[in-house]
Amino acid sequence: MCSSEELEYPQKLLDYQCGFLVSKTMFTACELGVFDLLHEVQEPIAATTIASRLSTSVDGMERLLDACVGLKLLKVELKNNEGHYSNTDVSTLYLVKSSPKTLYHMITYYSQTTYKLWHFLPEAIREGKSQYERGFGISSKEVFEAIYRSEEEMLKFLYHMDTIWTICGKDIIQAFDLSVFCSVYDLGGCTGGLAKHFVSTYNETTVTIMDLPSVVQTAKKKFVTDEEQRIHFLEGLFMTGQKKNALIC
Ligand SMILES: C[S@@+](CC[C@H](N)C(=O)[O-])C[C@H]1O[C@@H](n2cnc3c(N)ncnc32)[C@H](O)[C@@H]1O
């Protein structure tokens, strides 16, 4: 049932209609390095300075900064009649690239990959298939071949996946009592985001991550340190219909 307010004024629909404008404003500020610069300078600075440091137009930057103030991603104060901008506490924690809790990698993935693919949502619904071919010129039937179309793209995806666990991993692990399991296999365990929370919550548990060889090699190099000794890796393929590796859990 709709409320009479909703029938009088379609606020929800207007919000849905404009949702992508909000997303793209935050994505753009992240990608251009606005939050990183403001974190680096550690004091409120004018739009002209920000535009010059980030090599953008002044007019465009002023509009972006004011939109970010409206979205509460930035703060502004007047000094000599000129707006000076700084990060909010939330932006410092989640939007600055160097923060341990940064969403930067997930945001840039959404901006550069997910956003582009969602442009073809009508085609995806009509055809019932992913739109990597239209979006990125990759015709593979295997979606992970498209996602991992280059080493650079694979790394971007892995950082994107890892970010999710830095935000909600602890809550997910603590939502269940998993203490009875001393040996855990994480199929498609990727960078070990879940595994790290597992071994830090349960002192006796070992986790074996099974993933594609290239992913395992990158995870070992860039995401899991030697100190995390209770995390092991297994290279292989699952669900391909090919009997390349037997996996017994
Ligand atoms: C959506 S990601 C999820 C990653 C991880 N479970 C997480 O939550 O962060 C799916 C994972 O499955 C892996 N994967 C996809 N197809 C695979 C296959 N045929 N064999 C092994 N791993 C595969 C990918 O490399 C990726 O790490």
From TrEMBL:
Pfam name, any one: Methyltransf_2
Keywords from the named record: Melatonin biosynthesis, Methyltransferase, S-adenosyl-L-methionine, Transferase
Pathway named in the protein's UniProt entry: Aromatic compound metabolism; melatonin biosynthesis; melatonin from serotonin: step 1/2
PROSITE patterns hit by this protein: SAM_OMT_II
Keyword Membrane: no
Record-linked PANTHER family: O-METHYLTRANSFERASE CICE, PUTATIVE (AFU_ORTHOLOGUE AFUA_4G14580)-RELATED
Coiled coil residues, start to end: none
Protein name per its UniProtKB record: Acetylserotonin O-methyltransferase
A Gene Ontology molecular function term of the record: acetylserotonin O-methyltransferase activity
Domain O-methyltransferase C-terminal: 118-239
Gene3D superfamilies: Vaccinia Virus protein VP39, Winged helix-like DNA-binding domain superfamily/Winged helix DNA-binding domain
One GO term of the biological process aspect: methylation
EC nos: 2.1.1.4
Domain O-methyltransferase dimerisation: 15-96
Known role: Catalyzes the transfer of a methyl group onto N-acetylserotonin, producing melatonin (N-acetyl-5-methoxytryptamine).
